Amino acid sequence: MGAGLRTWLNVAVLSFAFVVIIFYNGMLDGWNRQGRNDTIAWVTGAGQFWHPGFDRFDPYTFQDSHNLLSPEIVSEVEKKNLSPVLVSQATAFPQGRSLGVILKGIDPEQTILSLPSSALKDEINQDNAIVGKRFAESANLKKGDKLLIRWRDKNGTFDAREVNIAEIFNCDVPEADNGQVYLSINNLQKMMGMQNEASYLVAGENNPVKNPDNWIFRDLSFLLADFDKLILSKRVGASIMQVFLLLIALIAIFDTQVLSIFRRQKEIGTYIALGMTRIQVVGIFTVEGGTHSILATLLGALYGIPLLLLINKTGISFGIGQNMNITLADTIYPYYSLKLIISTILLVILSATIVSYLPSRKIAKMKPTDALKGKLQ
Amino acid sequence: MENSSIIKTENLIKRFPVGKTDFTALNGINLTMGTGEFAGLVGPSGSGKTTLLNIIGSLDTPSEGTAYVLGKSISLLTHAQSAKLRNHHIGFIFQTYNLLPVYTVYENVEFALLLQKMTGADRKKAVMDALEWVGLTDKIYSKPSMLSGGECQRVAIARSMVKRPEIVLADEPTANLDSKNSHHILQTMKVLNRELKTTFIFATHDEKVMKYLDRIISLDDGKVVKDEILTAEKY
User: Fold this and answer.
1) How far apart are CA A335 and CA B225, in angstroms?
2) Where exactly are the structural domains of chain B?
3) What percent of chain B has pLDDT over 70?
4) Domain definitions of chain A by residue range
5) What is the reported pLDDT for A239?
6) Is A275 close to B84, i.e. CB distance below 8 A?
7) Rg from Cα positions in chain B
8) How much is the pTM?
9) Using CA atoms, how far apart are residues A110 and A87, in angstroms rounded to an integer?
10) pLDDT at A319
11) What is the assigned CATH class of domain B5-229?
C-alpha cells in the first residue's frame, strides 16, 4: 500500500466503525427479537380476533365491545387454539388509594399466553386475581393481599368486590402489566352480566379459525405496530451515529488517497509510460483505496468476532426497562444476522471504494509528462 | 543504420502556456529516423530534447505539425491507442529509473508484459531473457531499494526491452550514474541495439553518451541546428 502507518490507522478506524455498526444494529435486532417474542408470548399470541368496536387504546370502547362465543369458537377454546379475553374498565383501591385499572377476564386453562392463569382457578370460592410486578409495586401489593375493585356492569350499575392477589408475575411487556388486573373470565362474565361473551380472542399458533362472524382478525404487524415504530425510531437515531462514525473513517481514506496521488505522481506517469490507460491507473488506485475496506473487514473480524460473541453470550444489562414503560428486557442479547453482517461488509467496502475513486478521477486529467516530472497539479 | 523510417516529424511545433503567454519548446522540427538507429538529441537545458522525446513516445501531442511513429500520427491517437502503442512498441528509460518500489526486480520487468496478456510461461521466459541481457538474473527477488543506481538503471533497461519494442526512448539515462556504470549501461544498450535492431533515441547532454551515438541531433531553442550522422563503428 505504500502509505504504512497511515494505511493502518485508516484500517483501524474503519474496522472500528465496522464493528460498532454490527454491534449497535445487533443490539437493536436483539431487542427487537426479544421484544416481539415477549409481546407475542404475553399479550398478542399469534394474532387476535377483535369485536369490531374494540380498541385496546380506547377504554371507552370496552363497555360495548363484546361478542357471544359461538359453538365453533368454544370448541377451539377447548382445544386451546383460541383463548377468549373479556375487558372492562374498573377502579382499584389499594390501601385506600384509587387507581384506574383494566380488568381482563382470561381462561384459567389457557396455554397460549405465558400469563400464570392457572392461579385464577377459583378455590374455596375465592375471587383470585393475578397482577404484574410493575403494577404490584406501584399499588404496593403482595401475593395474598386483598384488593378492592369497583366496576360497572353491562347495565351501568356500579358494583365492588375484594379479590385475592393469587400470583404476581414478572414480564418485560408493560402492556401485559401496567394497570392490568387479570381475573377468571367466568368470574368477570358474571360480574359484568356478560355470560359467554368476550371482547377479543387470542389465537394460538395452530388456530384453524380464519374468519369467524362478528370478529375482525388483527395480525401481528397490526398488534406490534407501535413496537416496530419504536425500534424504527431507534434505528434511525443509530443510523445517524453510524453515518458519522463511517464518515470519519471515509474522510481519512479520502485524505490518504489525495495525498497518495499527490506523492505518487511519478509512479502514475510510469504506469502510463509503460502502456496503461488512464482508466486502468484510476482502477489501480481505486482498488488500492478499496483494499482499506477489505483489511478493515479482516481486522474487524479479528477482534470483533470474539468480542461480539462474548457480548452475545453474556448480554448487556440495562436495568431500566421496567421503569421506562417500553418493552425492554433487563438483559439484551444482541442478534447478529447474516443479512446484517453481509450488508455491513458491503456498505463498508462500497463506501470505501467510492471514496477512493473520487480523488483517483484526478489521474484521468493528469498530463503524463507532468506526472513523470512529479509536478503539482 | 537501416533506411526504413519509423519516426517522422513534419514542421513539429509544441507550445506550453507560461502565465499569459506561450513558451515555444519545439519550433518546426523536421526529422526522420530509421530502424536500428542509435541516435541522440543533444542540447542545453530548455532546448526541447525531452519535449520531442515525449511526443515521439505519445506521452504528449504536438501543438502544430505532425509526428508519425510507426506510421501512426500521434495527434490522431486516442488515449487507448497511444497506451497500446507505448505498451507494445515503445520502451522508456528515465533519468531517475522510475522503478515501482514495492515490486521486486522480476515484477518490475514483468509489469509491462502483464498488460499484454502474455501467458505465464512466455512471460517468465521473456523476463529472464531481459534480465540476462542486463546481467541481473541473480537479483530477481531484490527490491529496487536494495540495488545500486547502476543496477536500477539496468532493471529499467530490462523493463524497456522485455517486450522487444521497436523504439526505446531514454531521457538522460546516465545523469545519475558514475562513469563506470554509465559506460556499462551504454554498452549494454549498444549491444541490444545491434542484436535486436531496436531504435534507441537519447535525450542527453552527457559527453559519455555522445561517444556511443551513431547520430547526433543538436537542438537549440526548439530547432534542429545540426544533424550529424557518425558512420564509424566506435564500440
Assistant:
1) 80
2) 5-229
3) 97
4) 5-40+226-373, 48-218
5) 86
6) yes
7) 17
8) 0.73
9) 16
10) 66
11) alpha beta
